Amino acid sequence: GGQPLPLTITIEEALAHRAGLGDGFPPLRTSLHLLWLWFLERETHFFFVACRFVERMRPQWAPGTYARYHMISFSWWVYGIVQQFCGLHIGDFVNSEIPTRLDVLGELFIGHVPPSQHNRICPLQAQAYLDTLRDTFTTTYDYVVNARWRQRQEERKAQAIYEGVDLDGGARSTACFEQEGFSKLPSMRQPFEWIFLVRCYLFWFWTILLVNVAESVVMVAFWNARKMKNFCLPSSNAFCSAKAAARLYSCLATDGSVEGHRVYKESTVRALQERIKCNPCVPSPDGPARDTLGFSPWTNIFDGRSPTVISHNSVGGNAVFGDPANGLSVAVIKNWYRPSVTRGGNVNSKVVDTICQIIRDHYKVEHPPSREGGA
After folding, report:
1. Residues with Cβ < 8 Å from 159, sequence gap 6 or more?
2. What is the pTM assigned to this prediction?
């Protein structure tokens, strides 16, 4: 871990990805031990080892002051909290309590899927090769042009200012450079810059393509494995229908209940909604992070959509959101796996815009979430 800090980590900070523990990846020896226990399906021993690892971790920064996605350790946090407070395994608690209250029996599981329900689970599929090539092309273009080329221009201009010369060889004042912006692409008088861009693009295109293919093959095989249906990993293997996910988030968009069945305390939901309105953000590697108690804290999750929307994406491109301003919820569930390198964790904006248009046309909702940021 990081530097020892004599601080207490609260449950709220842990759920909001503000515990200061980073990604929470265990060391190699512990990781191999956990992988072996998962392979043997020794779940109780698995969580014992995982929770002991979390207990020994030290914050890398003061808890509550910085957010970083607890991708791995979040499962162990939630398992330990539920186990201590309820005395129940989180998989048993969720699978027995939540579907009954949502009226979606047989449509929501966190692992521990009964064998009789296995044939109802739609297997993941890797995206088509042409789609992979298209996503790789656009991702590489965005990275090379918007990141690498801009960085090169900044370095070249800084060098020119230091040397007091024009980029093309003539004398140039510092004020001239300060007034200029950045060009989208090199001019025809800069052949060496074009060579740089082409070489950079080819390198990153093939790198990203190989990563995309490898990720798709590994992740599709991993999540289609029988063990993922039997094992419980709270942050990794929820099996549900779009209806179940949407009804769960509808409770967050209203008063904590759905059709008279209470799922959350009303006071808790109202406090969450008010907190999001106040938008008390802290810094994070992905931009400002809201305090949302485990629901996605990242403000850019829906391409700049309303910051009051409570939402969460998942690996591969599934997502669900609840909109308290209009009292509605929407779930996008698919079995087409889109690699994370090509923004696979984000819902295509066209999909969300189509859903919003359906809401406008058929349900007469006045202001559904829009890409421009309206609620």
Report:
1. none
2. 0.74
